[in-house]
Amino acid sequence: MILNELEIAAFALLGLALLLALLRLVLGPKAPDRVVASDTLSVITTIGIVGLALVLGNPLYLDVALVYGVLSFVAVVAIARAIEGNRVQGGAHETRR
């Protein structure tokens, strides 16, 4: 397997984006920043899996990327809902029944 210059550049940019999102995840001043960073990391990872499927010529990785994308979306929504539930609304905590 030999990569051409365009594929090498694409994977290098994905790696750079991954590092920048990881930096935001670690240094994010608030929880919503970290949630957005984790969502960004999951999207970048999904794109990396799709790129791997293209480079290797194996369509099985596309199914893996699809399942990973759906599961990461559900996880990010669950985390965002949990953070939203911890907020104070109108000066008093809302209670759920």
Any key phrases for this structure?
single chain, 97 residues, mainly alpha, 3 helices, flat
Topology at a glance:
Layout: H1 5-27, H2 31-56, H3 60-85
Helix pairs in contact: 1-2, 2-3
Description of the structure:
The chain is built from three helices and no strands. It has 97 residues and is mainly α. It has a domain of 58 residues. Helix 1 runs antiparallel to helix 2 and helix 2 packs antiparallel against helix 3. It is flat and about 55 Å long. The protein starts with a helix and ends in a 12-residue tail after the last helix. The mean pLDDT is 90.
Major sheet characteristics = none
Q: Counting H and I runs of at least 4 residues, what is the number of helices?
A: 3
Based on CA atoms alone, the radius of gyration comes out at 18 Å
- Overall shape: it is flat
Strand content: under 5%
- Strand tally is 0
Span between N and C termini? 58 Å
Element-level helix/strand string:
HHH
**Approximately how much helix is present in the residues?**
over 70%
Structural class: mainly alpha
Q: Low-confidence spans: pLDDT under 50, at least 5 residues?
A: none
Q: pLDDT average, as an integer? A: 90
Brief overview, please?
By secondary structure, the protein is mainly alpha-helical. It contains 3 helices and no strands. The chain has a domain at 29-86.
